[in-house]
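ok so I'm stuck.
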Amino acid sequence: MSAFKGRVAVVTGAASGIGKALSLELAARGCRVVVADLNLKGAREVVGELGAERAIAVRCDVSKASNVQSVVNRARRQFGSLDFMFNNAGVAIVAEARDLSLRDWNRVLDINLKGVVNGTHAAYKVMLAQGSGHIVNVASGFGLVPGPGLIAYVTTKFGVVGLSETLRAEAHDLGIKVTVVCPGFVNTPILASGADSMESGRALIQAPIITSERAATITLDGVARDRAIIAFPLYVRLAAWLYHRCPWLFFRFLLKGARDLRRSKQKSL
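replied:
not stuck anymore, here's the structure
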């Protein structure tokens, strides 16, 4: 039997990118889905593809705990339970620390880290009462290794990995599963959502880019197997291995990335 058939899932940041792909794949595997996004129009379009009997659209600002709690409450009222919480919403700003304002920092922290805290807090209480459930936090390969030009993003994703790994241990004996997802470069609008354009970020992308659909399939296959960390593609796992085993060598790659980013930015001026 499918791990998702007849279950209920909330997906944040579900109007586009990985969130949309997760929603579509969850529904295909028999799950009922709450499609949550700040972009309600986009969320409704996703529900239009899924069918009203299998999904509902809800506007959600993940940086606001009350918004996320309302989404979780709606899932329980509409479908009777909450089996999966996919904390997926995120933004990125391609910039060095010297070019970031506190407003930039707070925007990324509020969505990428505080948003995951809000989603985890709301879902965990429900799942504790049920005695079951699975929290899935979407981090990044940059939650396992650092990356120049994405300092605010990296900060939040390292935090999401630490949160998830700690909660997995705390929740294990309470019947609740926790997984963190660490994808590499996925074809989503996220790098264009910050102050700098995708062009500034191209210097960082020197590895194959996979589709959102493929990312969703890998994620759900890993969730079904209750994997603690789902890191993909292979270069993400290799980078993490190198970072921990040969930090001096990895640092040389970081320096090159920082210098390439600066050269790319200078050319665009």
